[in-house]
Design goal:
160 residues, alpha+beta, At1g16640 B3 domain, B3_DNA-bd, transcription regulation
């Protein structure tokens, strides 16, 4: 006897009646080519009902618009994917868990190499984050303060 909770709908059509999850591990070729292939089984079940534009929604409520490329029975996250990858500093080995609700939205969780979910940026999704390497950081040159800076320092001291 099988309970209704354990039964799955394995029909091949329509949108998902309950959330569908899949994951992808970022590999070097995904990063180099700027696109990510959706799993074949997911595409065979839901690919015909996917719109040409989807939205990736993150836990910080940021949404990213991504265009899909459909070719030879495969579906790829294409235009907009590279910017998503760069903004979130995704690297080889990062794990992404996708939840598809049968619409144009995929909820995404990102785990880094520590196997923990990342701290998502609080900035707006359309702003670019910049990776900073420690070698790129130069000590600031010391300069003499300008007359205006001296005056503002004196004002602060006077109001204490």
């Amino acid at each position: 006897m099988t309970s209704k909770l354990n039964q799955r709908d394995d029909s091949h059509g329509g949108s998902a009646s309950k959330p569908i999850h899949f994951f992808r591990i970022m590999l070097s070729h995904n990063l180099l080519h700027g696109k990510l292939r959706l799993p074949s089984k997911f595409v065979s079940k839901y690919g015909n009902h996917l719109p040409n534009t989807i939205f990736l929604k993150l836990p910080n409520d940021a949404e990213w618009e991504v265009k899909l490329e459909k070719s030879d029975g495969s579906v790829w996250f294409q235009q907009g994917w590279k910017e998503f990858v760069e903004y979130h500093c995704l690297a080889h080995g990062h794990l992404l868990v996708f939840r598809y609700n049968g619409t144009s939205h995929f909820h995404v969780l990102i785990c880094d190499m520590s196997c923990m979910e990342i701290d998502y940026p609080v900035n707006k999704a359309n702003q670019k984050r910049v990776r900073i390497n420690s070698e790129d950081i130069q000590p600031a040159k010391t300069q003499k303060p300008t007359q205006n800076e001296k005056r503002s320092d004196e004002d602060v001291r006077d109001h204490k």
